[in-house]
Structures are given as structure tokens and as C-alpha cells.
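In this section we walk through a basic example: taking a raw amino acid sequence and producing a predicted 3D structure, encoded as C-alpha cells. The instruction is simple. Fold the sequence below.
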Amino acid sequence: METTGLIQRAIEDGYLQIITSGKTEKIRYVAVNLAEKWSDPEEKV
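The resulting C-alpha cell sequence is shown next.
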């Protein structure tokens, strides 16, 4: 399963939430109530 597939499944199962505020997106890990800045998982390294 691809990374994006795993992320989509985690969102569907309620483990992750994507929060959009203006131009920024945050990912929220529901179990620990932690939010971090989110960008494309295939961003430049």
C-alpha cells in the first residue's frame, strides 16, 4: 500500500485529521491530540 493510501485509510478510520486554515494545512494525530504543519508527503528533501 502506498503512503497516500495509508494516510487516506488513517483519516477514514479516524486516526488523523487534516485541518485547513487559509493557505496552511495541519495534520492532527487524534490519539495524542498533536497537530503539526502538513505539506505534500512527497515534498523536496
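Looking at the output, two observations stand out. Residues 3-38 form one domain. The radius of gyration is 11 Å. In the next section we compare this with other chains.
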